[in-house]
UniProtKB/TrEMBL annotation:
InterPro entries: Glycosyltransferase_grp1. Keywords: Transferase. Pfam families: Glyco_trans_1_4. The keyword Transferase applies. SUPFAM superfamilies: UDP-Glycosyltransferase/glycogen phosphorylase (SSF53756). This is Glycosyl transferase group 1. It comes from Rippkaea orientalis (strain PCC 8801 / RF-1) (Cyanothece sp. (strain PCC 8801)).
Length: 407
């Protein structure tokens, strides 16, 4: 059995959970061929990502001429399949938010995959995210390529279901993965109830680099950390406002923002406006090892997200024995147990966030340690990447047995 993965951009700093999944499958004895539609524009600072880049086939490296040649080649050698795929491309492109021309590009990318499918004898494609990567493997399947499945993370896919043709993608797939029960529920909304059994839950997971670390005590210093891309959905601007209110109440602490992104300048302006330069620090992008050290140097992780799937960084923090503050959004309440492993607050509300941060700073270290242990045990049981990869491998094997031979 030969399985290939397709991701829009891989490797990527924020896609370490995909890398862990691929490596876990290979550790279990299933080699994975990696495909990415395009290279990541961000620098790859983690050595593990750099190693993955060397193993990854970039579809757009074929260039415009290569895409056109593949498109023509498949049209000539598989005319009936090509016409069927072209009609579907026009139908879905017309309804999309990206337009027919871009969907024709997806068709050309699917034709490039057909060549690889024949050459490498790939039996199944798996895509991450329900957007263009899944559209490409769908069209590849219509062209007579391998069966496919995909993992949907949210939240963006759930915001434009019809525009990305999610019902059609679910319909044609062998199976579909949600990363939480919440995610599965949203997928079930967009397919007939008789097909709900093809919607599975497989969690994102962590590897032994988290579970094998010796337990490190929570430090006495009042340090909070927030790890994530600096963007609207992560809520860092709200976090800066909450920090200003805590400072005004006389609390002394350090808030470390690990990451970078489009909101860095507005966040820096907010830090200056509220005179928080001695309180808040932005590190920029960090390697996995550096992220771990920032988490371990903190009392708690704070991620006041407005929209999410299920943030891996919360799993990482809990696995390292640090309680978390986050919001009642999507799959987060399935991971964080209020009062046991962290605190949950309403998304977009400043004062409850201030209260939760205050509780962290006022809670005795021994109690924080107990919360960290509870969170670590939960993550080890429910988010071990090897355990989750075993579930996924079984689904791939079932897909192989049920797959019809392509034309």
């Amino acid at each position: 059995m030969k399985v290939a993965y397709l991701i829009n951009q891989y490797p990527k700093i924020s896609h370490s959970f995909i890398r862990r999944e691929i490596l876990a499958l290979e550790e279990l004895g299933l080699p994975i061929t990696r495909f990415s539609i395009r290279s990541c524009a961000e620098p790859l600072i983690d050595e593990a990502d750099q190693q993955e880049l060397a193993k990854t086939n970039i579809i757009l490296d074929a260039g415009i001429l290569g895409l056109l040649i593949s498109l023509l080649k498949v049209a000539i050698t598989r005319p009936q399949r090509w016409i069927e795929a072209f009609i579907l491309t026009l139908k879905l492109g017309w309804k999309s938010d990206r337009g027919i021309l871009l969907y024709c590009a997806y068709l050309a990318e699917a034709c490039v995959l057909i060549d690889h499918f024949s050459e490498l004898q790939i039996s199944h494609f798996h895509a991450h995210f329900g957007t263009n990567s899944t559209m490409v493997v769908l069209l590849n399947h219509i062209l007579g390529g391998a069966s496919y499945s995909f993992t949907l993370h949210g939240p963006k896919e759930f915001e434009k279901v019809e525009a990305i043709a999610l019902p059609e993608k679910i319909k044609q797939a062998e199976f579909v993965v949600g990363i939480s029960s919440y995610g599965r529920s949203q997928l079930c909304r967009w397919c007939d109830y008789t097909k709900w059994d093809k919607i599975k839950v497989i969690h994102c997971g962590l590897d032994q680099s988290f579970f094998s670390l010796p337990r490190q005590p929570i430090p006495q210093e009042n340090t909070l950390v927030c790890v994530g891309r600096l963007c609207e959905q992560k809520g860092q601007l709200l976090l800066i406002e909450a920090a200003s209110k805590l400072v005004a109440q006389g609390f002394k602490f350090k808030l470390i923002l690990v990451g970078d992104g489009p909101l860095r300048e507005p966040i820096e302006q907010a830090i200056a406006r509220w005179q928080l330069k001695e309180t808040v620090e932005i590190t920029g992008w960090a390697t996995q090892a550096e992220v771990q050290q920032h988490i371990l140097a903190s009392k708690a992780m704070v991620l006041p997200s407005f929209a999410e799937g299920l943030p891996v960084v919360l799993m990482e923090s809990l696995a390292l024995g640090r309680p978390v503050i986050s919001t009642y959004v999507a799959g987060i309440p399935e991971l964080v147990i209020p009062g046991k492993s962290g605190w949950l607050v309403p998304a977009g509300s400043v004062n409850p966030l201030v209260d939760a941060m205050k509780k962290v700073l006022e809670t005795p270290i021994s109690q924080l340690e107990d919360m960290g242990k509870t969170g670590a045990n939960y993550v080890k049981e429910h988010h071990n990447v090897l355990t989750e990869a075993q579930k996924l491998m079984l689904l791939f094997q079932e897909a192989k047995h049920s797959n019809k031979s392509p034309v």
